[in-house]
């Protein structure tokens, strides 16, 4: 199998794992499990999976870990794992899986905005690539506003004999009442905060990996710290231990699935894809998650989808591709400029040496 084909299959698998995470997490929350407890289980299961793998593969070549670097890893775990996963879970509970999946398209765009603020990216509005990136950010912002504040007519599920998983303890709440609109908008806001945390984490991973270059140990240590952080958060915010209970049902399956596949395996697969095809290739396939989530939720699980969610998702996907296209054109322009500089060097050398040769004659 060709390398490009494998990359496409792996990225499709990654997006399918993400879609499954959003769907199963929503089902678990509707079954009554607390979002903070579920987040703790998710991170803890990922840690249990990562520790033996890291010990086997990295034990003999692990770089030394200073207290300063350990503290930085602790902070990265706090804002890059603990905070966004808990925000994501609560936001998903307050809304639905389809709009939350649409908001995932914000991650590359938010990453670009943060990188620009930290002067790691440029934005030249006089060039076409700068204009594309700026309009992409604007489209994403418009999509978020539409998603949060405009519902529109409902799109009824085409399959009326859907699996009755979404409606065990809570149902799809119509967005017509003022309370449900506030609840929905708050859920979207929480997801935006989660994507911002994830984006900031991505931006800051580069400097951290320079200090502690082992990707696997880095991820494992962050997961260990996040497990204890999430445990403390859950103990503080949810003292009713009956809400912590995982029954022998879909909630247990969801926790195991999300912990193993979305929090552990996906990390390795993403690193593999980025190494093979680059981060842009991974980012441009994020909308696949939305397609899979929408198809399953709307068709089989009976999730009520509003027109506003579809319009907002289209705007955000358009914004995502605008930013990616602008970034691609910028890279091509820089590459061409570097090639022109390289071509000019021999000419300068020839012009400088010809007079010398003539003088010698």
TrEMBL record:
Per the record, its GO cellular-component terms are: membrane
- The answer to keyword Transferase applying to this record is no
Where, subcellularly, is it found? Membrane
For this UniProt record, the keywords arranged alphabetically read as follows: Membrane, Transmembrane, Transmembrane helix
Q: Where is the EamA domain?
A: 6-146, 186-323
Give the signal sequence positions. none
TM stretches of this protein: 7-24, 36-57, 69-88, 100-118, 130-150, 184-204, 216-238, 250-269, 281-301, 307-325
> Topologically, how does it sit relative to the membrane?
Multi-pass membrane protein
Q: What is its main location?
A: membrane
Which SUPFAM superfamilies does the entry mention? Multidrug resistance efflux transporter EmrE
Q: Which InterPro entries match?
A: EamA_dom (IPR000620), EmrE-like (IPR037185), WAT1-related (IPR030184)
According to the UniProt entry, its GO molecular function terms are:
transmembrane transporter activity
Q: Which PANTHER family match?
A: WAT1-RELATED PROTEIN (PTHR31218)
The entry sums up its family as follows: Belongs to the drug/metabolite transporter (DMT) superfamily. Plant drug/metabolite exporter (P-DME) (TC 2.A.7.4) family.
Name listed for the protein in its UniProt record:
WAT1-related protein
